[in-house]
Write a structure and sequence with these properties.
Layout (H helix, E strand, L loop, with lengths): L1 H21 L22 H25 L1
Length: about 70
């Protein structure tokens, strides 16, 4: 059982890293000087879906980590 949980934890950790890296940058950078960064600041459908996937992977990783400790 622990072996299966270790595999799930490893897969969810790797998937979580990939999901976080796929997010768009939220920082303004040099675009904040002229106010252009706020023009494209609204989340789109793809970004919202990626947020849900990221949250799901984070919760899965957390729950599996707790189950491995117990």
């Amino acid at each position: 059982m622990k072996g299966f949980l270790f595999i799930i934890q490893t897969l969810s950790a790797a998937s979580l890293v990939v999901a976080v890296l796929m997010h768009t940058a939220k920082g303004e950078g040099l675009g904040g000087i002229g106010g252009a960064a706020h023009l494209f600041g609204s989340p789109k459908g793809l970004e919202q879906g990626l947020d849900r996937i990221t949250w799901g992977l984070a919760i899965t990783f957390l729950l599996v980590s707790i189950m491995l400790v117990i």
